Amino acid sequence: MKTNKIIWDSLTFTRNDSAISRSISFFIVSLILMNVIAVICGTFESVQIKYSKILDAFEIFSVIIFSIEYLTRIYFCVTDEKYSRPISGRIKYIKSPLALIDLLAILPFFICCLNIDLRFIRIFRLVRLIRLLKLVRYFKALNLLIKVIKSKKEELIVSFGLILMLLLVSAFILYHFEHEAQPEKFPNLLSSTWCALSTFTFIGSGDIYPITIFGKSFLAIIALLFIGIFGLPAGIITSGFIEEMNKTKDKSKCPHCGKEI
């Protein structure tokens, strides 16, 4: 049991002072980044033709490592109190977000082995970039970001809802001003939504734009208004980061005297 606990702690990086844990972390992170580089290189036709065997061999090696890591976590997860039951505990772990990410990291390879349409296979090859999400497990800052998003989810939902509502209202008004003047460019609400979105996000594609005085004036006013509104989610996340950092600092202080422990 003690050996199982050591292995689980090494895999979950509970023991940051462990050389084994640090080595595993460094190896997996390096492998994930190398996989991303391999996926990018695979999109170049010249590289794919010349080094296809090397890329395929590296893919098989990566899947073997990630599969061993995934199955090992499932086997030893019962040492954790949250997953202590042999069957239900492992099922609970498999359904956890990080375990699902681990599964998605290897799933495209096995799907590509099936006899299915090649265009579908190409899509799943690009899905291998999901392996980047495995980095969440290895960096405290990414874990902190997820924690902040969870704690501020209601505020974020409200802010994104407000942005969406104003975008739709702006698109409707813009459609009202421009439809008669440019029926070919503003045939429906969807095209006016694209015009509003490209203006608010400063994409400025230039394919659709207002020509009436009312349309131009309205879009200019709304664009200035959206500069502040688009900053709402960033402000919420920033305040969440500050709160979580303050909580971490408070935990390291004595609750009686306030001195650092």
Superfamily (CATH H level) name of the largest domain? Voltage-gated potassium channels. Chain C
Oligomeric category: single chain
Whole-number total of structural domains = 2
Number of strands: 0
Give the C-level CATH assignment of the largest domain: Mainly Alpha
**What is the string of SSEs from the N terminus onward?**
HHHHHHHHHHH
The CATH topology of the largest domain: Four Helix Bundle (Hemerythrin (Met), subunit A)
* Secondary structure tally, helices: 11
The percent of residues in helical segments reads: over 70%
Radius of gyration: 25 Å
Structure overview:
With 261 residues, the chain is mostly helical. The protein folds into two domains: 2-138, Four Helix Bundle (Hemerythrin (Met), subunit A); 153-248, Helix Hairpins, CATH 1.10.287. The protein is built from eleven helices and no strands. It has helices at 2-12, 19-42, 45-76, 88-94, 97-112, 118-126, 140-151, 153-178, 189-200, 213-229, 232-251. α2 runs antiparallel to α3, α8 packs across α9 and α8 (153-178) runs antiparallel to α10 (213-229). The model is unreliable at 118-122 (pLDDT under 50).
